[in-house]
Amino acid sequence: MDTEDNAATEEPHLPLSRTANERLHALIPGGAHTYAKGDDQYPENLAPVISHGRGAHVWDIDGNRYLEYGSGLRSVSLGHAHPRVTEAVRRELDRGSNFVRPSIVEVEAAERFLATVPTAEMVKFAKNGSDATTAAVRLARAATGRPRVAICAGHPFFSVDDWFIGTTPMSAGVPAATTDLTVAFPYGDLTATEELLNRYADEVACLILEPATHTEPPPGYLAGLRALADRHGCVLIFDEMITGFRWSEAGAQGLYGVVPDLSTFGKALGNGFAVSALAGRRDLMERGGLRHSGERVFLLSTTHGAETHSLAAAMAVQTTYAEEAITAQLHALGERLAAGVREAAAAMGVGDHLVVRGRASNLVFATLDENRQPSQRYRTLFLRRLLAGGVLAPSFVVSSALGDADIDHTIDVVAQACAVYRKALDAADPTPWLAGRPVKPVFRRMA
Questions:
Q1: How far apart are CA 297 and CA 318, in angstroms?
Q2: In what order do the strands lie in the sheet with 50-54?
Q3: How far apart are CA 58 and CA 54, in angstroms?
Q4: Cα separation, 212 vs 243, whole angstroms
Q5: How distant, in Å, are the alpha carbons of 346, 375, 380, 384, 434 from that of 437?
Q6: Are strands 122-126 and 276-280 parallel, antiparallel or unpaired?
């Protein structure tokens, strides 16, 4: 590697983080409680262990400060330790967090959520997204009496439960009989989806998908999917874990005006606190309740699902979004960042290799090799240079805590990274700039 590459930006010194990572791996499978946070997702010896965060910044235990993107795996959209959220949480902590009967906070949170997402009629809270999506699938199977689940192909994650994980390369431990009940349909292709529903006539309980991804839904697609679900008698489920709040306060369904039967929310709902939601039509949701005469569905029953401080956090988040136009702020910040990154990449001659994608409030980047194919090695190079510039960015997903100066700094660091990227492309080999093994995909069969 050229000495000028080292001089431009110095990689963070991480002796304490390296020791902590060894401790993590010794006691926690994978070294983290979420695979996407694993040190295999970062360049070798450059996986900081976090001490604390405030706003758009985090500090590692070695004392290095970073601008952080994709905070909390997209969950911290208002920035760390947001004062309105933390104050709401503190108020409830002094009043007790969990009781033998429902707290009044539970109905207040339900009323607030349903006012925010008026397309739903009932809601049940939980702690994580997987519980909510699996409950939606179970409810759809119970309501239709059908066994199969149709998932949207190419969408990265729906649940840790067998009905989904069995379809990934990490399917060890999932019986084939379970996986066989999950089928896939392509996003944006109504003809192929109808062919699937005809192939498995009267067998598909639900269609589950993220209503929008890194591309906008084709015109008429979501409405067409709604019509298909109605025509074939299956339940339409929108996984709004990511689109919720980032697309609009009411999620993608609120933005695009297509109402699913059931939808699931999480991530941004708690600004880092553990809360998720399953919401939907009353006649479906009530099957998991007590005021009906049919067979009961074990919908959601979680000891910690209604902890008062998490529900208070959710209410504070919704109030902040509404009063401060947070979704608009996220879009404005993302548009500024995307334009700057694209301009920097183009100026360095790598505009066709470092590609920013997605809605402005949910930006990701692709790193492509000399043949314009996705490359983990070029991703490693790029991440190393970002870290050297004090930017911790597995994605470019913004929080509202970012300011214009933060965006400008990020663009400057990206420009320096692109200069190195160009050299690696010219050499047709990024190896000299990797300083270790490349980062790895989360979903892979072998460790």
A1: 29
A2: 50-54, 57-60, 65-68, 391-392
A3: 6
A4: 7
A5: 28, 13, 8, 12, 7
A6: antiparallel
Question: In the numeric block, which tokens belong to residue 109?
Answer: 């949170």
| Helix spans in 325-403 (H) | 326-347, 376-388
CA of residue 77 relative to chain centroid, distance: 11
Rounded to whole angstroms, what are the CA distances from 83 to 91, 170, 314, 404? Answer: 12, 39, 13, 21
The one-digit pLDDT tens for each residue of the chain (447 residues) are 333 343 346 899 999 999 999 999 999 999 999 999 999 999 999 999 999 999 999 999 999 999 999 999 999 999 999 999 999 999 999 999 999 999 999 999 999 999 999 999 999 999 999 999 999 999 999 999 999 999 999 888 999 999 999 999 989 999 999 999 999 999 999 999 999 999 999 999 999 999 998 889 999 999 999 999 999 999 999 999 999 999 999 999 999 999 999 999 999 999 999 999 999 999 999 999 999 999 999 999 999 999 999 999 999 999 999 999 999 999 999 999 999 999 999 999 999 999 999 999 999 999 999 999 999 999 999 999 999 999 999 999 999 999 999 999 999 999 999 999 999 999 999 999 999 999 998 888 888
The amino acid at residue 116 is T
What are the tokens at 400?
Answer: 């509202």
E-strand spans in 129-275? Answer: 148-153, 182-186, 204-209, 235-239, 262-265
For residue 205, the SS3 value is strand
Q: Is 281 exposed, middle or buried (0-12, 13-18, 19+ CB in 10 A)?
A: middle
Q: Which of 415, 150, 123, 73 is nearest to 277 (CA)?
A: 123
438, 424 Cβ separation under 8 angstroms: no
Provide the residue type at 204 as one letter.
V
Give the span between the Cα atoms of 25 and 31, in whole angstroms: 4
Nearest to 279 by CA among 234, 242, 240: 240
